[in-house]
Amino acid sequence: MPKLPRLTASEAERLLLAAGFAHVRSKGSHRIYQRQTERVVVPFHAARTLHPKIIKEVMEAIGQ
């Protein structure tokens, strides 16, 4: 498996929205995106790099 890119929350949000996900709701600092039955939760902390497990979840959701 290739190495995962380092993403911030805003970069992950841009990828999810481009892949057809919609921002459903927010709870605290977490934003929830949904496309049909698929749901992704992204912790939104300004300018901090996301944990690799969250990046992997985002990449699998968008199909990369």
* Main β-sheet, spatial strand arrangement: 1-2-3
The string of secondary-structure elements, in order, is HEEEH
Query: Could you report the average pLDDT, rounded to the nearest whole number?
Result: 92
**What is the number of helices?**
2
Number of strands: 3
- What is the first-to-last residue Cα distance? 11 Å
Poorly predicted segments: none
Major sheet characteristics: 3 strands, antiparallel
Structural class: alpha+beta
- The helix fraction, in percent, is 25-40%
Overall shape: it is globular
Alpha-carbon Rg, integer: 11 Å
Question: How would you explain this protein's 3D organization?
Answer:
With 64 residues, the protein is α+β, with helices and mostly antiparallel strands. 33% of the residues lie in helices and 28% in strands. A hairpin with a 2-residue loop joins strand 2 and strand 3. The longest helix is centred in the C-terminal third of the chain and has 11 residues, at 52-62. The relative contact order is 0.27. The mean pLDDT is 92.
Which terms summarize this structure?
three-stranded antiparallel sheet
Summarize the SSE layout with pairings.
Layout: H1 9-18, E1 22-27, E2 30-35, E3 38-43, H2 52-62
Antiparallel strand pairs: 1-2, 2-3
Question: Brief overview, please?
Answer:
With 64 residues, this protein is of the alpha+beta class. It contains 2 helices and 3 strands, in the order αβββα. The longest helix is centred in the last third of the chain and has 11 residues, at 52-62.
